[in-house]
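agent: user wants the full assembly modeled, not chains individually. Plan: 1) parse entity lines 2) check alphabet per entity 3) run joint structure prediction 4) return tokens. Steps 1-2 passed, four entities, 336 residues total. Proceeding.
--- entities ---
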Amino acid sequence: MKFPDAKKQFIKTWGTLGSEWGINRSMAQVHALLLIAPKPLTTEDVMEELSISRGNANMNLRDLINWTLVSKELIAGDRKEYFVAEKDIWEIARRIAKERKRREIEPVLKALIQLQEFEGTKSNLEHQAFIDTVGKLGKFVGKMDKSVEVMLKADESWFFGTLLKLLK
Amino acid sequence: MKFPDAKKQFIKTWGTLGSEWGINRSMAQVHALLLIAPKPLTTEDVMEELSISRGNANMNLRDLINWTLVSKELIAGDRKEYFVAEKDIWEIARRIAKERKRREIEPVLKALIQLQEFEGTKSNLEHQAFIDTVGKLGKFVGKMDKSVEVMLKADESWFFGTLLKLLK
DNA sequence: TTAAACTTTCAATAAATATTGAAAGTTTAA
DNA sequence: TTAAACTTTCAATATTTATTGAAAGTTTAA
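--- prediction returned ---
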């Protein structure tokens, strides 16, 4: 396989994964492109490589910066903005985990805890099933949240090495 | 908060989480409804409770069955099909993990391994950056895959117990 | 200042995805 | 058998989400 095809294939694969995980396909593709770029790219580079519009490239780059997966880089003597992706895979995983925890797990946890205030009637089957499920789900999501915290504090070799060895 | 509101709130919360994770909002809502149902529901029950069409209810129930999160239940002397959700939260998590591993992680891993066949030119910066990133990503996704395998074999108290104890 | 170089915004449009509902298909009781 | 009871399918439609591109906004060099 020649380089241009390998590159296309990689971008496509990452884009597919992104969309399966609720992430905009273009955003995942811009990320893929930057992940394999040996040097900072401009908005124009991204537009050209992925055949997307300026607005699209700009918005997705901005989103990637919000996710802290990409940062702007200034190059002396050039007015253009350049972009680079974080290349350390473990660091990427941590940043994604951190954001998803904040954006998704925490609000759900909060909602579930709030729903635990519902008291209901002891003799009412529907009420009891609700209380039971919401209680168990709340506990579970709480543990998930704590687990992500552990992962955020850990370093990669501890996480994959020590932990997984202990769990076997 | 009264029961009907708590119920609505729960269904809404679960639906939102679903759509953030690339799952059809209706499918997540049908799941939520079944999770808190004290007894099996029919397609009609689902249609009515969620104000969705017969076709929609049917398709989402079928999808949930494919995910092994819901099963059909026969009630003697009744021609209708009834549906129940798995209620054990750890079991739900395992089944989701199992399916996502199979549908998403494994194909990406396969693609990344295949891309590692690309050899490239030593003096070519682009080639070297590509090889480096794809190699590291492949290793990482491989570890993720293994971790999910561990989780699938573990039981809940072992998994969260060990993990969370190590935090302290 | 000014104007060129560059970035951002956003209303219009396109594309993707979900939903409907009626028709076709299947099963069962009589 | 048949027809009622029930489930599934799928083309049409609606809804949501992503993309475009030109205009507005910002920054910088001269």
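agent: reporting back. Residues 43, 54-55, 58-59, 62, 79-81 of chain A lie near DNA strand C (CB under 10 Å from a C1'). Chain A touches chain B through 56 residues (CB under 8 Å).
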